[in-house]
Design brief:
This protein is of the alpha/beta class. The protein is 25% helix and 15% strand. The chain is built from 11 helices and 14 strands. The strands form 2 sheets. Strands 7-8-11-6-5-4-3-2-1-12-13-14 form a 12-stranded mixed beta sheet. A two-stranded antiparallel ribbon has the order 9-10. A hairpin with an 8-residue loop joins strand 13 and strand 14. The radius of gyration is 21 Å and the shape is globular. 46% of the residues are buried.
Length: 425
């Protein structure tokens, strides 16, 4: 095999794992960074004379930094020095697909409508995050967010906000694409910037097996409609599953390059029905790259230049089984084999208003209840900041490999109580 094509999938293309391997043991790292200069727990004692709390041992999550007086946090920082800039905001748990890695065939028991955040509540929490806490990017997720009839109004409300730099927050949407072609123009006018569309395979029969719905044509129309409306770049999310990888991955990449879409392969994570995931069946980044190399794609590693989840490779122009393809890029989100927990800057809100500081959080913090009980913005900020301070080190825990109840799963992941549809992607 030519050396020029072997180099891209060297282990060195991923950032040095400050948090180590998550499949196995994760090395614990403390950050030498400032603690939030604010009081986030009214019962906590006074901090230093300068109004800044002393650093706490990350191993004592119940100790929350405090400041004298009634200071309110102006950012969301955790015990490991990570600061939130990205909010994943789920607006529904409902979905019109039944992906095998996401939910059971019969679906889930959906949240009752009164329990969902209203459009006004979503707008308020987005405003607090952007204008008071330094969030710069908001991604609307689900479930399937297109199932909310007021999606355009939600987007418009978020688009009306201004970050500390005086610009509109970056607004993205993660969707399965069904019906997107009919709403793309309106969403663009409302202020949506871009979309990520989930397409795991281009084989209609395989798509129907994975999603339990024969809807691939509609999904492709949705992605094309988004592109025509200017919701670009259109990114395609493909969960990598075992079986037929050498056929599926190259075909997806070639088609995305021809259509001008950006493909991101995502390693399968344990966020669906428990029986749907086994560590030994995870298709890692190196196997994906080997499949692309074997199909003749010439790749040059770029790494993670913007510290976002995807490691990126440049793809040279060339030909594949379906003909010529232009140059472009491909990414791999290696959450399992090359995790990026050490520089995670995300926080998540579920459709029923519960804060999850990590995708694998066993702990949830209720914001909807206090908000409906009349909490002020300052009170919501204190709740949010306190929960963020306790954000776990990696994949839901400060001691990867052990769940909150002390059980050793041996794979480095805590299993959240919710599946992916109920959390928000």
């Amino acid at each position: 095999m030519p050396p020029s094509r072997m180099a891209p999938y060297s282990r060195t293309v991923f950032p040095s794992p400050r948090d180590g391997r998550v499949v196995g043991t994760v090395a614990r790292t403390r950050a030498a960074s400032p603690v939030p200069a604010a009081r986030v727990d009214s019962s906590a004692g006074p901090g230093s004379g300068e109004g800044r709390a002393p650093a706490r041992d990350p191993g004592t999550p119940e100790e929350v930094p405090a400041a004298s007086g009634d200071a309110v946090p102006d950012e969301l920082t955790d015990r490991y020095g990570r600061t939130v800039r990205d909010l994943r905001l789920s607006i529904t748990d409902r979905c019109n697909l039944r992906c095998t890695y996401c939910m059971p065939a019969a679906g889930l028991e959906w949240l009752p409508a009164p329990g969902l955040l209203t459009g006004a509540e979503i707008a308020r929490l987005a405003r607090v995050a952007v204008e008071r806490l330094g969030v710069e990017r908001i991604r609307l997720t689900g479930g399937e967010p297109l199932m909310r009839r007021d999606l355009e109004a939600i987007v418009a409300a978020v688009a009306g906000l201004r970050t500390r730099r005086g610009v509109k927050p970056d607004i993205g949407l993660t969707t399965n694409g069904l019906g997107l072609d009919r709403r793309a123009d309106g969403l663009r006018r409302a202020g949506l910037d871009r979309v990520n569309v989930s397409i795991d395979t281009l084989d209609p029969a395989e798509y129907a097996r994975v999603t339990r719905r024969d809807r691939l044509d509609g999904v492709l129309r949705g992605a094309a409609g988004a592109q025509e409306a200017g919701l670009t770049p259109v990114k395609i999310n493909a969960v990598v599953m075992p079986g037929a990888l050498g056929e599926r991955a190259p075909r997806l990449l070639g088609e995305c390059l021809r259509r001008g879409w950006i493909l991101r392969f995502i390693e399968h994570m344990p966020l669906g029905p428990r029986e749907s995931w086994r560590a030994e069946e995870v298709v890692g980044a190196e196997r994906v790259l080997e499949a692309l190399d074997s199909a003749g794609f010439e790749l040059r590693a770029r790494g993670r230049p913007d510290r976002r989840p995807a490691a990126v490779w440049d793809v040279a122009a060339g030909t594949d089984r379906d003909g010529f393809h232009p140059a472009g890029t491909v990414g791999i989100i290696a959450s399992v084999t090359a995790p990026f927990c050490a520089d995670c800057d995300r926080t998540r809100l579920t459709a029923d208003g519960r804060l999850m500081t990590c995708l694998f959080s066993a702990r949830e913090t209720d914001l909807r209840g206090p908000m409906r009980a009349g909490a002020s913005d300052d009170e919501l900020i204190r709740i949010w900041a306190e929960a963020t301070w306790r954000k776990p080190l990696a994949h839901g825990t400060d001691t990867p490999g052990r769940a909150a109840d002390g059980a050793d799963h041996g794979d480095g992941f805590v299993r959240p109580a919710r599946t992916m549809s109920a959390i928000g992607g």
